[in-house]
Amino acid sequence: MAMTIDVLLPIDQAEGTRSQVLRWLKAVGEPVKRHEPLVEIETDKVTVEVPAPADGILQEITAVEGTDVEPGALLGRVAPMAAGSAPAPVAPASKAAARAAPEAKTAAASGRRASPERMSPAVRRLLAEHGLDADAVRASGEGGRITVDDVLAAAARRAAPTARTPQPAGVAADGIRRVPHTPMRRRIASHMVESLLQTAPHVTTVFEADMTAVLAHRAAHKQDFEKRGASLTLTAYFVAACVDAIRAVPEANGRWTEEALLLNGQIDIGVATALEGRGLVVPVIRNVASLDLFGIASGLGQLVARAREDRLTPADLRDGTFTISNHGVSGSLVAAPIVINQPQSAILGIGRLEKRAVVVLRDGRDEIVIRPRCYVTLTIDHRVLDGHQANRFMEVLVRRLEGWN
Question: How many Cβ atoms are within 10 Å of 116's Cβ, its own excluded?
Answer without folding.
Answer: 14
